[in-house]
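fyi for ur records
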Amino acid sequence: MSSIQFQIIDSTLREGDQFALAHFTLEQKITIAQLLEDVGIEYIELSNPVSSPTSLQVTKAITSMVRNSKVLAHVRCHEKDIQAAIAGGVDGVQMLLGVATHLTEHSHGKNLDQIILAAQSAIHMGIAAGLETRFSSEDAFRTDRSQIVILFSALEDSGVLRFGIPDTTGTATPHQVAELTADLVSRFRLPLEFHAHNDAGCAIANTLSFLEAGGRFINTSVLGIGERNGITPLTSMIGRLYTIDRHLVEKYQLDKLQELDSYVASCLGTEIPFDLPLSSPYAFYHRAGIHTKAVLSSSNTYEIYDVDAFRRQRQIDFSSPISGWHAVTFRIHQLTGRLIADTVAQSIASDMREVASSRSFSPAEADRFILEKAHVYSI
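which gave:
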């Protein structure tokens, strides 16, 4: 079994709220939280309770109904933010303040000493209120590492439970993530948390590198939604870990992930992206003849997931210009319960490929075509 140990902090209701198409209602947010809890996600992260006129209302509503997951609020190192989080009834706070030069100059305007004092004060306030408290150094992969080390060293004995090293702009490579993570794991006794943006398409790979280097807490969102190109997609990340060692994710209800993804997509008014690992509508779609023949004989020839475990359905395309006769045999057996001769299937497939080269078939048309041809060739 893999040595990876981890917990998921899902940020659909915080980072996901920053996605361009996200306009979740209170009812939708409650449903998303319930579905996340049903899957078994350990932490649900919410937006700062002071970030909008309804944020505190959302926080109170979700904390009042969630029973098994912990609810966290994403806050600045400000007293009013922490007081609002306390009022919202959350289990913990996700504090952040960056020490990168571009942030000290163009964002919050604090120097390193001021950042340390603000962080210490905020952490003490959270701890005094009994909140699980994390501190994150924003944009860690564009920050001078010596500054991160100084900051974390000053905070290590403050009562904070973990440190965060977000790749805020998605600039990091898997090697850079592994190297920084391993270095900080060797320096500090506190566990690390990672938040990977997907601007360069590396969010899943970077998150895996973080875990393999000794990190413990990972951020995700449903479908990967978030600011700009979003962050690590929840279902895809669970799928990535499943392929390494399925025991890593047996604590989650894998068969509920597709319902969660589909619901969030419907809230956004969009389709699940065609290239999203595992939850894409085409993730188990097979067309080429050599693929369909092998998959129908043994699914693991071209599939790395158990479709039943994730409550997905395999799709075998028998109506394209490159479909094979094994797919025709399979479909006719599905439709009629009968097995046809190989020579008949080969003839039907040849006819299908010829017609499909000039036009496409709807599923109903394709079924009618092969059944009519089966009748003709079987006489």
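The chain has two domains: 7-268, 285-378. thats all i got for now
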